[in-house]
Amino acid sequence: MCVKLEGKLFKDGRYWPIWIPVIGVYTQGKSKKDAYFMIKDAVEMTVDRPGFEVVVIPLPENKFILHAKKSSHDKYLVAMLLRWQRANYGLSISEVAKRLGITKHAYAQYEQARALPSITKVEEFIHAMSEHAHVVLDVIDDSEAA
Fold first, then answer.
1. CB 106: neighbour CB atoms within 10 A?
2. What is the total count of domains within the chain?
3. What is the chain's Cα-based Rg?
């Protein structure tokens, strides 16, 4: 699996705000290049794991893709996504676990990046947080991620 998160960049006066809505990371730069550096740095600092590094790939229409440099580090991005979505809906780990019918410990393993859930599981987790949650998940062959 290769976890890729889509973000948006826009011009606002002298600055370029940049964000990744699905994980709630927002920053800005004085130029596009600076904004891309800032979002990369913000995600890496948030994860705060030795050797964790992300790649930012600009796309047309001021969008971009961010992914972990090593596919073995995808679990950190998924953990960020789950923590942000849970916090966004004002839920505790216990509440999400109860909605899923699993133990708090089992669910916490994913938020602590001790395990990487499948795409199907991530969708199940997000839906348990809110039936109105909308996160687009797609399966990408690892060979396409290079």
1. 12
2. 2
3. 16
